[in-house]
From TrEMBL, chains A, B:
Domain NIF system FeS cluster assembly NifU N-terminal: 2-121
Pfam family, one: NifU_N
CDD domains with a match to the protein in the record: IscU_like
Domain of life: Bacteria
Gene Ontology MF terms: iron ion binding; iron-sulfur cluster binding
Biological processes annotated in GO: iron-sulfur cluster assembly
Record-given protein name: Fe-S cluster assembly scaffold protein NifU
Stored Gene3D superfamilies: 3.90.1010.10
SUPFAM superfamilies registered for this protein in UniProt: SufE/NifU
GN (gene name): nifU
NCBIfam families in the record: NifU_clost (TIGR03419)
Length: 121, 121
């Protein structure tokens, strides 16, 4: 049902937690299943220097957020804004169709956190 | 959004894992969100002596399974079969309407594991 990469990131997720001194925080909800995702960013010199997430969502939400945060850590804001849930799902070697909606949470939360960062400037 | 009890069982779930020498195993899927739940039972003298679960489901699925397994551990098969998802949700001081479907997984998995136990006799 799930790829090895999904199970790896689900059982041992990266970048889980909060950043008390975050420069941007994004919180998004999933209309389909009622789950929420919160993303915390530290930004320095236009780059994402640290990133953490917390979710009440399922294994697919955890796995996609784990790999998505890995992918954008160290990137510029411009590159991070280009992250799509399609790229994240591909990096995980796919997800069952019923779980694609979970992967959207990570992409939306990153964008919401960057919007929050700009709003604070 | 979530009660203290839900957050307690979500952040520190009880009875997570597998039982390699289980007497009954139940696996059920959730048509609404595509998540799965697996329940393992040890049964001795008509009583549930041990119980563990594994799920790919969300925080509500984890919290309901954690408290449901607490509730039926040590019970007779007859009493365990009476467990309803309504009773589990009440024991958690409620769940948001969008997450009630997640609580059904635990009840169904217990019943599937008991059916598997009877099938093996
Ligand atoms: S959304 Fe699937 S178990 Fe909760």
């Amino acid at each position: 049902l799930y790829s090895d990469k999904v199970m790896e990131h689900f059982t041992n997720p990266h970048n889980v937690g909060e950043l008390p001194d975050a420069d941007g925080i994004g919180e998004v909800g999933n209309a389909k299943c009622g789950d929420i995702m919160k993303m915390y960013l530290k930004i320095d010199g236009g780059k994402i220097t640290d990133i953490k997430f917390k979710t009440f969502g399922c294994g697919a939400a955890i796995a996609t957020s784990s790999i998505a945060t890995d992918m954008i850590k160290g990137q510029t804001i411009e590159d991070a804004l280009k992250l799509t849930n399609k790229a994240v799902v591909e990096a995980l070697d796919g997800l069952p169709p019923a779980k694609i909606h979970c992967s959207v949470l990570a992409e939306q939360a990153v964008k919401a956190a960057l919007a929050d960062y700009y709003r604070r400037q």
